[in-house]
Every structure is written in C-alpha cells, then in structure tokens.
Amino acid sequence: MKGHTLMGQLMLEAGRSSRGSKINCPAELKARAEALLHPASPLVELHQCWAQQGLMTIEGVVVELSAVRRVVSGKEAVPLRKILLKQDKETMKASLWRPVAVETLVIGETVRITHVKSVKTEYGVQVNTTSFTKVEKLQTTQEITILGVLRDKGATCSTSSPDLCHEVLLDNGETLQIQETLWEPSFEEAVKEGPLKVKVSVHSKMITAIKAL
User: I need a labelling partner for 166 at 20 to 30 A (CA). Which of 72, 101, 132, 209 fits?
Assistant: First the structure.
C-alpha cells in the first residue's frame, strides 16, 4: 500500500529480486484495503470525549478558529491550528496538526473530525488529531431569519461554477452565501417587506436549498 513501509532483514548475497508487470488494482479493492488498514473511529459526543479510550470521531460547529502557526515537533517545524467546536451546549478544543491544520475552515460551519484522541491538559480535556485524521464539512438543515441580501456584481460562488453569488445577512449577525439561481424573486420581494424566515440546507457556509416558512 502506498505510504506504508515493508520492513524485514537485510537481503542475503544470494538473494535475487525481479520486476514483474504492472498490476491494475480496482478502486473498490483499494478502498477496502484502506478501510482494513485504517478502520473508522467511533462517533463520540463532545461531552463524552473525556471518557473515551483510543481514537474517536467528533462533530460540531466551529465557533473559534486560530491562525495557522508552525511549531517544532521532534526535529521539524509542523503547522498547527487550534479550533473550538460546539455541540449543543458542550464545547471542545481541538488541535489540528500537519496537513489538516492548513485545510480551509470558517467559523459557523459544521465539521466532522475523524481519528482524534483526547488528552488532559492544565486547561481541561481537549483532542488532538493524528496522522489518520480527516476533516469533513457536513451539510446541516436549519431555520434562519434573513434580514437582507448583498449583491456583488460579477462574484461567483466558486471557481468551478459560473453562477453568480449573493450574500445574505441573518438576524444573529452571521452571513451565508447563496447562488443567484436559488434566490427567487419571491424571496426578494419578501425581504423588502421585513425579516424573511426560511428553512435552508447549509454546507460550508453555502446555502444549497431554501424554502420559505
């Protein structure tokens, strides 16, 4: 498997090595092998992290996000970012190390972080990522109140999409993005009259579905 080292004794002088033809491995078989090498970690509620032994998966809303900084670990400088997750009324500090530290995250989005382990510090229990950790941005469904919409002419939601993007202001002071094709004329007229209550699906601060209440 790529990324894994085969270790053993030194080859004898009489030993021989040969090279064969390339073996095509189906993607499904590779995925099964990865799952065996790195089994999924159990999903644990934030308030239960302190009692969990071994690796676990946690979910929560990003409510605090530090800048990425480099710290010395062993003999090398590695990136580190600290975040604060919230789940219901519980919060948990998480230290993101190495590759996951530089992933794009924004306050307010819901994430799932796999293969973390809890550690006790002088400030309480927190979690650290491991070399197996993956960060996944989750889609959530919620009811929100829109106070207004900001249009940035020519702005698109992503480099891969030609759709124009608007920004909506919520009653809690936060903002979300929405494609122009989803922002119907009826929403435009309603928000002119006052706060607009809607039910939305949100993925990484982007509204992917919207329905008036």
Answer: 101
Nearest-angstrom CA–CA distance, 85 and 92: 5
Tokens coding 85:
């997750």
- pLDDT given for residue 56 in this prediction: 94
Helix (H) or strand (E) holding 30: helix 27-37
Alpha-carbon distances, residue 207 vs 69, 143, 149, 182 (angstroms): 31, 12, 13, 9
Q: Give the separation between CA 124 and CA 170, rounded to whole angstroms.
A: 34
The series of mean pLDDT values per 10 residues for the chain, 213 residues long, is 60 70 86 81 91 91 93 90 93 94 90 94 90 91 91 65 83 89 89 92 89 90
CATH (one of 2.40.10.270, 3.90.1530.10, 2.40.50.140, 2.40.30.70) for 46-137: 2.40.50.140
The answer to whether 171 and 195 are in contact (CB under 8 A) is yes
